[in-house]
């Protein structure tokens, strides 16, 4: 019975935190210029992707993009839960992660990178440029705009992580695509 009571206490504290976050979001976030900017970025980037995607690469880059969404959203949630970073402005009050980064900016940029640079040195160099840009430019800009708060995170750690994840997901994507082609 002790474990159940302890869990109920933790659950109650968590519910209080969720209510506080919802109230904060309703009072300060929704319909702010930052919130509208995120809505616009979401629409603009997915529209740009729909114009730049090449139909012949669509299955491969879609798999790659979906893997990025899974990894980015889970790592983002983990980083939040571990107190590494937080987001002042969210599209939704119920998940304390950035939909704009996890479901838009990261997967779209990596899908387009993979579409145009699928092999060898091109993929490596494009990933290095993107990792440096995302980590050392985009993260500080998001911080300056008040969208992102690093509590216990250094953007230099992000650079090798982006590159490593890109290669792991490329490997998985190619394995999935080969598997599908072998069955046909």
Helix segment tally = 6
- Derived from helix and strand composition plus strand pairing, the structural class reads mainly alpha
Low-confidence stretches: none
Reported for the largest beta sheet, the result is: 2 strands, antiparallel
* Approximate helicity band: over 70%
Can you list the strand order of the major beta sheet?
1-2
- What overall geometry do the principal axes of the alpha carbons give? globular
Report how far the terminal alpha carbons are from each other: 56 Å
Strand-residue proportion:
under 5%
H and E order:
HHHEHHEH
SS elements, strand count: 2
Task: State Rg.
Answer: 19 Å
- Mean pLDDT across all residues, rounded? 94
